[in-house]
Amino acid sequence: MSPSAAKPPLIPITLPQPDRFTGQMKVTNWLIDIGDEVIAGDRLLEVLSPGILFIVDAPVDGRLKEIVVPVDGSLTATTTLGWIEPAVDS
Questions:
Q1: How far is CA 44 from the centre of its chain?
Q2: For the Lipoyl-binding domain, which residue ranges apply (predicted)?
Q3: 56: phi > 0 → left, psi -120 to 50 → alpha, else beta; which?
Q4: What is the CATH number of the domain that holds 25?
Q5: Hey, which of 2, 15, 30, 83 would disulfide with 10, CB 3.0 to 4.6 Å?
Q6: Within a domain: residue 31?
């Protein structure tokens, strides 16, 4: 396999500024499906923290490869929520 054909590593989807969140949180809705293409900044999912509902955005351009925490799944500030396969420049 040539180096140009190697796939880039997957990028984790995590909470922005994890130090701002404490305690248990819950995924309330994934706004995209596995395989969907995203652009950095696109809204991916909704997370409920005690008293606050917020959106997690895509960290990079690419395609949603895996959902780690499903709807109604619990998470902490450092949990990986899913994985994005980054877009490859042609």
A1: 6
A2: 13-81
A3: beta
A4: 2.40.50.100
A5: 83
A6: yes
Q: How far is CA 20 from the centre of its chain?
A: 18
Report the Cα–Cα distance between both ends of the chain, in Å, rounded: 17
The pairing of strands 25-30 and 37-38 is: unpaired
Distance separating alpha carbons of residues 8 and 5, to the nearest angstrom = 9
Q: Is residue 39 in a domain?
A: yes
Q: How many domains does the chain have?
A: 1
pLDDT digits (tens, 9 = 90+) for 18-27: 677 777 899 9
Q: Which domain holds residue 41?
A: 19-84
31-68 pLDDT, tens digit each: 999 999 999 999 999 999 888 898 999 999 999 999 99
Element (H, E) at 13: strand 11-13
Report if residue 54 sits inside a domain. yes
